[in-house]
Amino acid sequence: MSKVGTDRVKRGMAEMQKGGVIMDVVNAEQAKIAEQAGAVAVMALERVPSDIRAAGGVARMADPTIVEEVMNAVSIPVMAKARIGHIVEAKVLESMGVDYIDESEVLTPADEVYHLNKRDYTVPFVCGCRNLGEAARRIGEGTSMLRTKGEPGTGNIVEAVRHIREVNAQVRKLTHMSTDEVMTYAKDLGAPYEVLLEIKELGRLPVVNFAAGGVATPADAALMMELGADGVFVGSGIFKSDNPEKFARAIVEATTHYKDYDLIAKVSKDLGSAMKGLEISKIAPEERMQDRGW
Amino acid sequence: MVKIGVLGLQGAVREHVHAIESLGEEAVVVKHKEQLDTIDGLILPGGESTTIRRLIDQYDFYDALVQFGKAGNPIFGTCAGLILLANEIIGQDNAHLGLIDIKAVRNGFGRQRDSFEATLQITGIAEDFEAVFIRAPYIEEVGPNVEVLATYDGRIVAAQEGNIMCSAFHPELTDDNRLTNHFIEMVKKSKLVAQ
């Protein structure tokens, strides 16, 4: 008797991605470049976050043609984004055989109150988080992987740094609490008590936590690994750079050997200009993607 | 005590380290080829085989790994590790390390939604092994000197040829350490012979 869609199978899939780079791609050609460069997975999108930001309007799940094209082009796992709370987009992506769904704040939320009940799906999910409360709520809903929200499409690492530091500091605090303090912490964070107990016992999150939202250079990727990320999502950074192929390889190497500074120096040479960054304070509050979802 | 390396370029490295340590042996994450000289056996973990292969080439690991295996040192590959060890990969012109006489099929059970858990019988090791298959490969054919250790649904999912062992599933994702323990026994024997 075999069982599909178990926690071990779904979380295990994310474990296999550890130490790797997941790259946003918008067509088969980019997906192949990403695979060649050593990406552990690709995220199939209609537009990368910086273009979504520039275009404005409502951002939705990608056209299934694009997702299919990418799935046919590569042998590594393919992820795709569904809007927060959009049950049908998620079910459609699952039925297409996508390997992982990102319930993503990069798209315009379909539901401002409820996130998806991710236990209803065989396919695993990745969700964004800014702090332990958000991380624990998503785990409570059944996410199998987390990532920092950062501020997508900005090429500015500051928010991703804030989020990974916050989550990890709160995990450390929880780990050192006595058990009778956990319920009050759960109340303060708005986090499920049982999930916090599990985290306390493990001394870490029970699912992997990748960095996302603003990684623009090999050094940014290495920084997030240094701060405790299990791997890195690179959105707009790669295919908005002058030489995507070289850039992609450099990010992969910097992520694998994030403590080898000679190597990071070497791979960072002559990469051409990285994507133009955005100062977070220049983004109107209603356009900040990280504030979508709760 | 034996010292077992886990190739630490990408993938589920921590889980293997944990399993080795919980069996009372020393584990070391191998990130540079020079480290191969200091270990008694090596585990190639699950991950993305294309990514790991690219990093193997990048860091000039290839010849060192092949020599390590050909010299008779025990190697255990799980999932992506099985793909890296196989002599032949169906649908691909080139295999990777070519250290075990098997023909492997990548993602043989389908995509992630088809990933599953099942109870396996592993010859001489376990009657009821809980195996986790994630976008797993299977072995379509084995050479004459390869021992089939386990099958699932008529497909070969674990095998051994001398000092090289592989599984399509992930023993490191459960607390059942019997297969890893079998590998550690192989390493101990090989170390005795070497001495």
UniProtKB/TrEMBL annotation, chain A:
Keywords for the protein's UniProt record, in alphabetical order: Lyase, Pyridoxal phosphate, Schiff base
UniProt xrefs under PROSITE patterns: PDXS_SNZ_1 (PS01235), PDXS_SNZ_2 (PS51129)
Annotated PdxS/SNZ N-terminal domain residues: 7-212
Catalytic residues in the record: K81
Keyword Lyase applies: yes
Highest taxon above the source species: Bacteria
Binding site for D-ribose 5-phosphate: D24, G153, G214, G235, S236
One GO term of the biological process aspect: pyridoxine biosynthetic process
Residues that coordinate or bind D-glyceraldehyde 3-phosphate: R165
EC number per UniProt: 4.3.3.6
Pfam families on file: SOR_SNZ
Function in brief: Catalyzes the formation of pyridoxal 5'-phosphate from ribose 5-phosphate (RBP), glyceraldehyde 3-phosphate (G3P) and ammonia. The ammonia is provided by the PdxT subunit. Can also use ribulose 5-phosphate and dihydroxyacetone phosphate as substrates, resulting from enzyme-catalyzed isomerization of RBP and G3P, respectively.
Record's subunit section: Homohexamer and homododecamer. In the presence of PdxT, forms a dodecamer of heterodimers.
Family the UniProt entry places it in: Belongs to the PdxS/SNZ family.
Protein's name according to its UniProt entry: Pyridoxal 5'-phosphate synthase subunit PdxS
Annotated organism of origin: Gracilibacillus halotolerans
Higher taxonomy: Bacteria, Bacillati, Bacillota, Bacilli, Bacillales
Automatic annotation (TrEMBL), chain B:
Pfam families assigned: SNO
Lineage: Bacteria, Bacillati, Bacillota, Bacilli, Bacillales
Recorded GO CC terms: cytosol; glutaminase complex
Enzymatic reactions: L-glutamine + H2O = L-glutamate + NH4(+); aldehydo-D-ribose 5-phosphate + D-glyceraldehyde 3-phosphate + L-glutamine = pyridoxal 5'-phosphate + L-glutamate + phosphate + 3 H2O + H(+)
GO molecular function: glutaminase activity; pyridoxal 5'-phosphate synthase (glutamine hydrolysing) activity
Binding sites annotated in the UniProt record for L-glutamine: G47, E48, S49, R106, I134, R135
Task performed by this protein: Catalyzes the hydrolysis of glutamine to glutamate and ammonia as part of the biosynthesis of pyridoxal 5'-phosphate. The resulting ammonia molecule is channeled to the active site of PdxS.
HAMAP family with a match to the protein in the record: PdxT
Subunit structure: In the presence of PdxS, forms a dodecamer of heterodimers. Only shows activity in the heterodimer.
Entry-linked InterPro entries: Class_I_gatase-like, PdxT/SNO, PdxT/SNO_CS
E.C. numbers: 4.3.3.6, 3.5.1.2
Gene Ontology process terms (BP): L-glutamine catabolic process; pyridoxal phosphate biosynthetic process; pyridoxine metabolic process
The protein's annotated pathway: Cofactor biosynthesis; pyridoxal 5'-phosphate biosynthesis
Similarity field: Belongs to the glutaminase PdxT/SNO family.
Coiled coil: none
Protein name: Pyridoxal 5'-phosphate synthase subunit PdxT
PANTHER family, A to Z: PYRIDOXAL 5'-PHOSPHATE SYNTHASE SUBUNIT SNO (PTHR31559), PYRIDOXAL 5'-PHOSPHATE SYNTHASE SUBUNIT SNO1-RELATED (PTHR31559:SF0)
Residue numbers annotated as active site: C79 (nucleophile), H170 (charge relay system), E172 (charge relay system)
Keyword Transmembrane: no
